Amino acid sequence: MSKGIWIGIVSLALVIVLVFGVFLSAGEITSGHYGLLMLALIVAAIMLGFPTAFTLMGLGMIFGFIAYQMSNPGEPWRDNQIFALIVQRTFGVVNNDVLISVPLFIFMGYIIERANLIDKLFRSIQLAMKNTPAALAVATIITCAIFATATGIVGATVTLMGLLALPAMLRAGYDVKLSAGSITAGGCLGILIPPSVMLILYGATAGVSVPKLYAGAFFPGLLLTVLYIIYVMARAIINPSLAPKLSSEDLKVPWSEILVMLGKSFLPLALLIAFVLGSIIAAWATATEAAAIGAAGGIILALAYRQLTWERFKEAVFLTARASAMVCWLLIGSGVFSAAFALLGGQGLIENWVKSMDITPTQFMLLSQTIIFLLGWPLEWTEIIVIFMPIFLPLITHFQIDPLFFGIMVALNLQTAFLSPPVAMAAFYLKGVAPPHVTLNQIFAGMMPFMVIQVFAMFLLYMWPDIALWLPARQYK
Amino acid sequence: MQRYLLLIDRISTWVGKTFAWAILVLTLVVTYDVVMRKLGSPTVWAFDVAWMLYGALFLMAGAYTLSRNGHVRGDVLYGFFPPRLQAGLDLVLYFLFFIPGILALAYAGIGYAETSWGLKETSYNSPDIIIYPVKALIPIAGALVFLQGIDEIVRCVMCLLTGAWPARAHDVEEVDIEELKEMIGVKESGAAK
Hints:
Mean pLDDT of chain B: 87
Strand content of chain A: under 5%
Distance between the termini of chain A: 61 Å
Oligomer: heterodimer
Mean pLDDT of chain A: 87
Number of helices of chain B: 8
Strand content of chain B: under 5%
Largest interface: A-B, 95 and 79 residues
Low-confidence stretches of chain B: 188-193
Number of strands of chain B: 0
C-alpha cells in the first residue's frame, strides 16, 4: 500500500481517538453528547468504506437503543422506541409523494443514455459552432450540458464524451488540458441543471418545493454553462494555438445540411427537456408527472431513432431499480440516523452551540458552505444532502436564510466537489477512456480553471441572489 | 458452500429484477393519470397506486443492489485497500452495523405489518385502496437484505482466506466502457470512426 493510504488510515484512527477523548473528558455526559459522538463518528465510519445506508442504520439503531434504554430503565427491550422509529422512517420514505419522481427521472436518464443520441448531437452542434473560436470545446460543453441534463448521469456522460470528443479535439490539435477540462466540467453540469435528482433529494429533506428549486437552479445552471463557454472562447482568442480551427472539410458543410442535422438530433431532445422542465416550472404538472411523461417521451424518442433494442431496454429497467434502491435505502438509513440523533437531543445541543457563537447570517453562510465543500471531499453528494441537510436546516431558519436560496448555493457548491482533485470522479471516468499519453495530472490541471469559475459563480450568486430567486418569485401567479 | 451463495444471489436478483419492472408500470400509470386529468376525468386510484409501486420497487430491489455491490460507499480510502483489508473491515462492520440495523428493521416491520394487516388498512386518500400489502413488504425486504448480507459475510470470509474477492454474477453496469464503445461505434481505443 502506498504512503498516502497509511496517512489516511492513521489520520482516521486519530480522529476516532480524539473524538472519544473529547467525549470522555466532558464533565457531565448528557444523552445529547451521545448524539454528538454519533455525529462525529459518522464521517469516520463512512470513510471505512462500508455501504453508507447500513452504516447509518446500524449506528442509529445502536445509539438510539442505548439512549432510550438508559432514560427508561426497567422497560422491556421490545418496547424500545427505536424500533417504532425505524419502521416509521422506512414507511416515510415509501409513502413520500416527492421521492416518487426519483426513479422516474433515473429511468428517463437511462433510456435516453441508451438511445445513443450523443454522437449525432455532438457532430451537429460542432458543425453549428464552426465559426466560433474553440468550436470543438464549445460544442463539447453544450453537448455535455444537454446530455447531462437529460440523463443526469455524470459517469456515462464523461465516458461517452471521452470516447467521442476527446479524440476529436486531440486530433484537431487542441490543448490536452483544455480538452479534458471542457469534458469533465461539462459532464458534471447535469447535477445542477434541472431536472436533477440532487434537487429532489434536497427538496424532500428540506421541505422546499421541487418546482421552486428547479426554477431557482435554472439560471445559475445556465450562468455556469455560459461562463464555461466564455472561458474556452477567451482562451482560444488569446492563444489560437490551444484550439485550432476546424478542418476545411468541416467548414464547407452548408448551413442547410447543418440545420437538418440539428433538427434530427438536437431539436427532439431539447424539446423533451424543455417540455419536462417547462411543465414543472409553469406548474402545469408536478415533478412526478413530468418525470413520467419524460420517461415515456424518452422511450418514444429512442424508438424513433431505432436504437431501443429489448436488451438495452431491460438494462435501463434493471439499472433504474439499482440506482433507485441505492438512493432510497440511503434515505432510510439517514432517516433512522436522524431519528436517533433527535431522540438523543443532539440537534438541540448543536443549535444552542451555534446560536451562542453570535455570528452574522453572512458568516454562517460562509461557514456552512465551507463545511459542505470540505465534506464533498470524502463524501458523495447524496450522503451530504441526506445526512447533513437535516442538521443545517433548523440553523438556516434561525439565521433567516431562505432555504430555497441555500439549496441552490449547496447545489452549486457540490458541483465544485465533483471537480476537486484528487477525488473528483469525473477525472477518473475520463482517464478510463483517454489515450495513454493523457495523464491524470493533466486532467486535474485542466479541471482547475473550471473549479475557479464555479467559485466565481457562487460569488456572483451570493452577491446577486436574484439570479436564482427571480424565476421562483414569478411562479404561481 | 458456493452453491448456497449462488442460490441467495439468485433469489435476490430474481426478486429485484421482477420488481424492477414496477418502473415501467409506474411510468404508464402516472402518464395515463396526467392525460385523463387534462381530459377532465382524473382517476382516484393513480396517486396511491403510484407511491405503492415506487415503494415496492426500491424496497424489493435492496437485496439485489447489495448483491451487485450497488449501495454507495465512501471509497476514498477503501478503494485503495488491498482485498484482505477490505474484507476484514467489511466483516467487522457487517456484524457491528449491518446485522443490528437490518434485524431491527425486519423485527419492527413484522409488528408494523401485522397491525396494518389486522386493520385491513386502506389509504387515507381513497378508502377503496388497501395499503397493508405494501407495509408487509417492509419486513420481507428487510429479511431479503439480511439474507443477502449473510451471503456477503461469507464472501468476506472467502476473500480473507484466498486473498481475492470471489467473482460476482455478471450484470449490466452503469459505465461499461466496452459496451459504450460498441454503442457509439468506436473501433479501437481513442479513434472514432
